[in-house]
TrEMBL record:
Keywords: Repeat. GO terms for molecular function: carbohydrate derivative binding. GO terms for biological process: carbohydrate derivative metabolic process; pteridine-containing compound metabolic process. Residues 34-176, 199-337 form the SIS domain. InterPro entries: GlmS/AgaS_SIS, GlmS/FrlB_SIS, Pterin-binding_dom, SIS_dom, SIS_dom_sf. This is Glutamine--fructose-6-phosphate transaminase. PROSITE patterns: PTERIN_BINDING (PS50972), SIS (PS51464). The keyword Repeat applies. It holds the Pfam family SIS. It comes from Herbihabitans rhizosphaerae. The keyword Endoplasmic reticulum does not apply.
Length: 347
């Protein structure tokens, strides 16, 4: 029998996200102040530094920056600074560091070094008094409140939203696409609950899963793989839909579960060919997102439709719940994943 007291913290923090998102959206003027400084400095390039779930939020921001701002963006490698003492020229570069705790030594060191090398540095964190905030020139408080569960949920979506509001304000936007996200988040959690439990029962004995998406949703596929691995110990690997067809599809067969993130827009549309291919190979496909109903899949989790650029804030919610439910179904406690702690400090 499933122990419903297990994972109580993770479950509560998943449920808290509509409030967190609504409150962060209401504070968008604070983020717009930071964006105004960025816009005045007119960066020619953007570097993003992060670890873990925050790294997936940074991947989302990379797409936002390249598509909405028409600026090149890349994911920084902190070890080039902390282990190899690299000192690149970063004049006219925006360096954004995302960290829920703001305490990882490598991210703090990378931010300090980037600032010395000429970059405009921005810290995006849930801990306003952290070393990271001290290291950066500017900072954004995601305001998610204390997160006690080891698996990041509300801090992840709050980081996504904060990065979106930053990029949107830099381009001169008003955050209009973000305004309904708190309400839509509640609707997403409520309407997906039954099918998520069905999916957990379906994949209870799965040994491996591929998660996949394109465009903005690639970040969601990556975060889903991490959540499934750290809470229920399911071997999950994330691929871009394009990369999946370039080789890894050879390993997909009747024993493979494929979780596809397919929200309405160009990224979701590009996933149809991918899912047709893996379905032909016998894979068990779970489609999640606002375009799920139109995809070839054995099981679908619908998500309310939004502008594609904010879809990742919603589409990850049922996947967090899937990780929670699957962990319970497999006899694990998602609040106590083996070998993990809330804050991981790397150099």
């Amino acid at each position: 029998m499933t122990d419903r007291t297990a994972g109580a913290r993770m479950n509560a923090e998943i449920a808290d996200q509509p409030r967190v998102l609504a409150e962060l959206t209401a504070r968008r003027a604070e983020i717009a102040d930071v964006a105004a400084v960025v816009a005045r400095r007119r960066p020619r390039f953007v570097l993003l530094a992060a670890r873990g779930s925050s790294d997936h939020a940074a991947l989302y921001a990379k797409y936002l920056i390249e598509i909405l701002l028409n600026l090149p963006a890349g994911l920084a490698s902190p070890s080039t600074i902390t282990l190899y003492d690299a000192r690149p020229s970063l004049d006219d570069v925006l360096f954004v560091t995302a960290s829920q705790s703001g305490g990882s030594p490598d991210l703090v060191a990378a931010t300090e070094s980037a600032r010395r090398c000429g970059a405009l540095t921005v810290a995006v964190t849930n801990t306003p008094g952290s070393p990271l905030v001290s290291a950066a020139e500017l900072s954004i408080d995601i305001g998610a409140g204390e997160e006690q569960a080891v698996a990041a949920t509300k801090t992840y979506t709050a980081t996504l939203l904060a990065l979106y509001l930053l990029v949107d304000a830099v381009r001169g936007g008003t955050g209009e696409y973000a305004l309904p996200l708190g309400e839509l988040a509640q609707s997403t959690l409520d309407t997906s609950a039954d099918v998520v439990r069905e999916a957990a029962a379906r994949y209870r004995f799965a040994e491996r899963m591929v998660t996949t998406g394109r465009g903005y949703s690639l970040a969601t596929a990556s975060e889903a793989a991490l959540k499934l691995a750290e809470t229920s110990y399911l071997s999950a690997r994330a691929y871009s839909g394009a990369d999946l067809l370039h080789g890894p599809v050879a390993a997909v067969d009747e024993e493979t579960a494929v979780l596809a993130v397919t929200s309405a827009g160009r990224g979701g549309a590009a996933m149809r060919e991918v899912l047709e291919t893996v379905s032909e190979r016998g894979a068990d496909v779970l489609a999640v997102g606002s375009a799920a109903a139109d995809m070839p899949a054995g099981l679908r989790v619908d998500v309310p439709r939004t502008e594609e650029e904010v879809a990742p804030v919603l589409e990850v919610l049922p996947l967090q719940r899937l990780a929670y439910e699957l962990a319970l179904a497999r006899g694990a406690d998602p609040d106590r994943p083996r070998g993990l702690s809330k804050v991981t400090k790397t150099r």
